[in-house]
Design a protein that fits this description.
single chain, 281 residues, TIM Barrel, five-stranded parallel sheet, globular, binds nickel (II) ion
């Protein structure tokens, strides 16, 4: 893709970082704004997201204790916030069967959920429950197939293990997002072997000295979706503070820089990609 003139890019940058100018629309495909970090000011957070051009915010669940808040927020902002249901790997311990049963009941008795998420493997903190995490992940992959819903996958220090669990499902109709992708070009290429999947890019791509932009350059724009993972992973210039959906514009601008295309193209293509995965809007 040919690069665009720096002055044009700069003028777009000015427009998008201005507060009230709505020049493009895009989707935050992964946000936890139902958590208590947002209890004090959620209406303002939603308003800022709308002003920034965010058209939908998709909310992955964590565990049985977060379902009520998740649904409350999605009910309050119907048509704007959409819930997913799943058991997060960091919530998996010896008691996982009870948790899974609650999640499965939600899935079977409600038609509100747009995806299974977030699920996956997390070996960053410890590996004590690796066996249990794998059982829970695999079970939820099967639910995604059974209910024909996309799968939102969290992977932390577990790339090979994620790949191993998913390998048998490669040729099936699974679709979804490898959320918070931060790997190498080689990692990206292996994940993109799963045809129905996109890579979720968030604020990490804006961090100073991050090797991620170099990898992202080689990922086809047709396989990228935008996400915040709010309240976490806040992009520069707000790194270190609470993240929120409106900050997604900084990740979008960074992608525009990396790919050398107008931000509007990133907004449009990433929205199309999200629509392809979720197919609901
Ligand atoms: Ni998350």
């Amino acid at each position: 893709m040919p690069g665009i003139r720096a002055d044009i890019l700069l003028s777009f940058k000015r427009e998008i970082t201005g507060n009230n100018i709505r020049i493009m629309n895009f989707i935050d495909t992964h946000s936890h704004i139902y958590l208590e970090e947002f209890d004090a000011d959620l209406p303002e957070v939603i308003e800022r997201a709308r002003l920034a051009g965010i058209t939908q915010i998709l909310l992955p669940n964590v565990n049985s204790t977060t379902i009520e808040r998740l649904l409350r927020v999605c009910n309050e902002y119907k048509g704007y916030c959409y819930p997913m249901i799943g058991l997060h790997p960091t919530s998996v311990d010896g008691d996982y069967e009870k948790e899974l049963a609650i999640i499965e009941k939600e899935l079977a008795t409600s038609n509100l959920y747009i995806a299974i998420g977030e699920v996956g493997l997390d070996l960053y903190w410890d590996k004590i429950y690796l066996k249990e995490q794998i059982i829970v992940f695999d079970t939820q992959i099967q639910w995604a197939l059974k209910y024909d819903l996309p799968l939102i996958i969290h992977s932390r220090d577990a790339f090979e293990q994620i790949y191993e669990v998913m390998k048998p499902y490669k040729d099936l109709s699974l679709k979804g997002i490898f959320h918070s992708f931060t790997g190498s070009v080689e990692d990206a290429n292996r994940l993109l072997e799963f045809d129905g999947f996109m890579l979720g890019i968030n604020g990490v791509v804006t961090f100073k000295n991050s090797p991620l932009p170099e990898a992202v350059k080689h990922i086809p724009i047709e396989r990228v979706v935008l996400e915040t993972d709010a309240p976490y992973l806040t992009p520069v210039p707000y790194r270190g503070k609470r993240n929120e959906s409106a900050h997604l514009k900084y990740t979008l601008m960074k992608l525009s820089e990396i790919y050398g295309v107008l931000p509007e193209l990133i907004a449009k293509q990433s929205t199309l990609n999200a629509l392809k995965v979720f197919g609901i809007f």
